[in-house]
Amino acid sequence: MSRHTGAAMKASLSNFKYRILVVDDNVSMRQTLPTLLSGNGYEVHTAVDGFDALNALRWAVPDLIISDLTMPNMSGFEFLSVVRRRFPNVPVIALSGEFTGVSMPSGVLADAFFSKGEHSAEQFFRKITELLDHPPIRSKHELAPLWIPRTTTGYHVLTCTECLRSFQVPDQPVDGRLREDECIFCGTKVRYRVESATSTSCPSAATS
User: pLDDT for 176-192, tens place per residue?
Assistant: First the structure.
């Protein structure tokens, strides 16, 4: 290796920044959190809800995702279930102002949970560093529950775990049966099971 090549590699490594995606419908959070993260050397991108975040994931996969749980259009529950299925090795931190305490809310597919305003910045950044240094190792074939929102028009909204686009399917009874629908965009078979949710107003489903 030449001296110039070695110098170029060192310069490239010194300029490397972890990419973090922040998903929150709160404008203040989308301004404050990226400012803090950028000040600590991270490259930060933002999204206003789960649908916006899925669109961002189609262009680039971040090194870590920080997501609110309660958002319009597509909640954090729904969004994180798709992330776990499609990008199982991307670490996730869930945030919420509605759930309190230190335990993970039921049904949340995340590696860490923080109640907004109940933890110090030091604790938060320590967890970010920990997850980036030691990201989770999960199989892409691991069964992950898929949260499905019901609409008032008698349809479920499924999100394809391959192309990350969402489409409607007729409302199904909550009977635990394994069902399958084809993504109208890419043709991928999306298998799911509608079950009763215990912690949110959405039914949940497991894809396989």
Answer: 677 888 999 998 888 77
What's the whole-model pTM score? 0.78
Tokens of 152: 């008032």
Apex CA 79: angle with CA 176 and CA 128, to 5°?
A: 125
Compare 174 and 10 and report the one with higher pLDDT: 174
Helix segments in the chain, DSSP class H:
3-14, 27-39, 50-59, 76-86, 121-133
Annotated domain spans of the chain: 17-133, 144-207
Contact residues for 146 (Cβ-Cβ < 8 A; gap 6+): 78, 81, 82, 85, 158, 159, 161, 192, 204, 205, 206, 207
Q: For the domain covering 17-133, report its CATH number.
A: 3.40.50.2300
What does the pLDDT look like over 121-153, one tens digit per residue?
999 999 999 999 999 988 765 656 666 665 667
Residues written for the chain: 208
In the chain, % of residues over pLDDT 70: 77
